[in-house]
Design a protein that fits this description.
Elements (H helix, E strand, L loop, with lengths): L14 E4 L2 E4 L3 H12 L4 E5 L16 E3 L4 H5 L6 H12 L7 H15 L2 H7 L28 E3 L3 H18 L3 E5 L1 E9 L2 E10 L14 E8 L2 E4 L8 H7 L10 E2 L8 H8 L4 E2 L4 E9 L9 E5 L5 E4 L15 H10 L4 E7 H7 L1 E2 L6 H4 L3 H6 L8 H8 L3 E4 L2 H12 L6 H17 L5 H9 L3 H7 L14 E13 L2 E2 L6 E3 L5 E7 L21 H19 L1
Length: 562
């Protein structure tokens, strides 16, 4: 649904915009905030530096996963969940340990209540459907008080990210038609204006028109300037995932990987966050980030260094760059941050999955709306074809075209190809043969001592995993399941877990904890609430939900303020 009444030609002179509420950023949290403020009877102006093709921001590209608790979908699958268990999992994963985490913890408690309460009904009232097979992300493995989801909670939006954007964009466009909402693309906010001690709006550059398609890098050449006057400003400009220099500066411990892929478009640069800091907004927890160790090069890139995340089942052998298996419980899909820390600590920027064709086609999914045309297009027939051998699936296309995907008949041949791709002799042929052989002996025993095989068998007790996510245990070298496959995995930047510190009304706080009147923040710019609702680790499905939750809170509070 393309926006209407947006700026199609930009003047080379100054222009003035006036509204009750100005929203900086037209991603999901910005659209939610704008739609909420408009529904409350306020006039709203939405500014974004990108062309209108990119409305919806990162959410459009997302898989559409939502963290929800005690839902009908869970109960139909025999999953017993409740708010107390979910909050226990959240707090164990977040591991809040800083004085500035007080607001974030309040947000976490409120969000879990929302996820276990009105979230699903609210989305249903907006026409958002949920795919019935709940997924199990971030399984943990560190005991009952450690990181991870105790039960499956990852609910996929039927229609993926675009279907989640649609109702809020539709409400905004309704406001445009009514003359109460204005959309201003190619408007890059560069400063907040303060008059007599009060926030009065934003100023910035009008950028030259751009024909860049969604997600492509666009020009930053200014052709004019603007001033937007408002009673309240909501900042929804996102994080720093495409700004690798900033990611490296903020990397915990100061040892970032030498090479990284980008899981977000180039526009996710975090530059406006320093503007908020310049008027006293507190930026906290910058060293807390959520990047993935399972990135692969997109063979058909849209933005610079475009990477895709593999969503793995638990059966692949996960090896570091030198061929050593990652220790338990760092199995695929169990602890993203733990695996990332382990891999980066080796001094290399890549790792490997070693598997076979059966496991690849059964267990591997790709994150993102464009990599899941069946779910995105709500195409039941195409979805059913995933379960058929030989189907033209997204994974098959990467097997055929992806630079990171290697195939061979034997472990020794696979080791040679892995070394050739990596440009060195890091993988010892004999070691890989020995590891694969030992794994196969464990499978053949019928029982075994391998904790990964125990995890695989436990996963298959859950209906969704048995149906579509976890292959029955079998020998990797069984010719019936071949050929063998190795996938080179790169670090993939994605989310900032820290951000602008906010209270439960989404008001931006200064270093002393006092609210800056008229200034609000939502989504990733606010660490999805409080400057870091996730603490150190996320439970997945919580980023889009955090945009919804904080965007709605910011829109309500900003509307009430004016």
């Amino acid at each position: 649904m393309p926006p209407k009444n947006s700026d199609l030609r930009h003047p080379r002179t100054s222009r003035r915009i006036t509204a009750d509420v100005v929203v900086v950023g037209a991603g999901l949290s910005g659209l939610v905030a704008a739609a909420t403020a408009y529904a409350a009877g306020k006039t709203v102006a939405v500014l974004d530096q990108e062309p209108e093709a990119s409305v919806g921001g990162q959410a459009h590209w997302s898989f559409g996963g939502l963290f929800m608790v005690d839902t009908p979908e869970q109960r139909r699958l025999g999953v017993r969940d409740n708010a107390d268990l979910a909050l226990s999992d959240w707090l164990a994963s977040a591991a809040f340990d800083r004085p500035v985490d007080s607001n974030a913890r309040q947000w976490a408690e409120a969000y879990v209540d929302f996820a276990a309460g009105g979230k699903r009904a609210w989305l249903k009232s907006l026409g958002v459907g949920i795919f019935p097979l709940v997924q199990w992300a971030e399984r943990g493995g560190y005991g009952p008080q450690g990181h991870g989801n105790s039960v499956p909670r990852f609910h996929v939006t039927w229609g993926t990210g675009p279907a989640l954007v649609e109702p809020f964009l539709g409400k905004v466009l309704e406001g445009v038609e009514a003359g109460r909402v204005s959309l201003h693309f190619r408007h890059r906010a560069t400063a907040l204006t303060i008059t007599a001690g009060s926030l009065t709006g934003v100023v910035g550059d009008v950028l030259e028109p751009s024909t860049a398609v969604r997600g492509q890098a666009s020009s930053r050449l200014p052709v004019g300037d603007f001033e937007a006057a408002a009673g309240a400003v909501v900042v929804t400009t996102g994080g720093i995932g495409a700004n690798h220099a900033a990611v490296r500066r903020q990397w915990p411990g100061g040892r970032p990987p030498a090479e990284m892929l980008s899981g977000v478009p180039a526009s996710v640069d975090g530059k406006f966050l320093s503007v908020v800091q310049s008027v006293g907004g507190a930026m906290i927890n910058g060293d807390r980030m959520w990047h993935y160790p399972e990135g692969i090069h997109n063979y058909d890139p849209v933005w610079p260094m475009h990477g895709i995340r593999i969503l793995p089942g638990p059966s692949s052998l996960w090896l570091d760059a030198e061929g050593h298996q990652l220790p338990a419980p760092l199995f695929p899909g169990y602890d993203s941050l733990g695996a990332l820390r382990h891999i980066v600590a080796t001094g290399h920027s890549h790792s490997w999955f070693v598997l076979n064709r059966t496991i690849a086609l059964k267990e591997l999914a790709l994150s993102g709306s464009e990599q899941n045309p069946d779910l995105t297009g709500k195409d039941v027939r195409l979805l059913a074809s995933r379960l058929r051998a030989g189907s033209d699936s997204p994974i098959q296309r990467f097997l055929d075209r992806g630079v990171d995907f290697l195939q061979a008949a034997t472990p020794g041949q696979l080791a040679s190809k892995m070394n050739q791709l990596a440009g060195g002799d890091l993988i010892q042929r004999e070691s890989l043969e020995s590891l694969v052989s030992a794994r196969d002996r464990q499978v053949s025993s019928g029982l075994g001592k391998d904790p990964q095989l125990a995890a695989i068998r436990a996963a298959r007790r859950f209906a969704t995993d048995k149906l579509m996510r976890v292959a029955p245990p079998h020998r990797l070298t069984d010719p019936a399941h071949g050929p063998l496959i190795a996938i080179r995995l790169s670090v993939l930047t994605r989310k900032s877990l820290g951000g602008l510190r906010t209270d439960l009304a989404s008001r931006v706080l200064d270093d002393s904890g006092q609210a800056i009147p008229g200034l609000y923040a939502a989504g990733e710019a606010a660490g999805f609430g409080g400057g870091g609702i996730h603490g150190y680790r996320a439970l997945e499905g919580t980023f889009l939900g955090g945009c919804l939750f904080t965007g709605r809170a910011a829109g309500k509070a900003a509307a009430a303020f004016v």
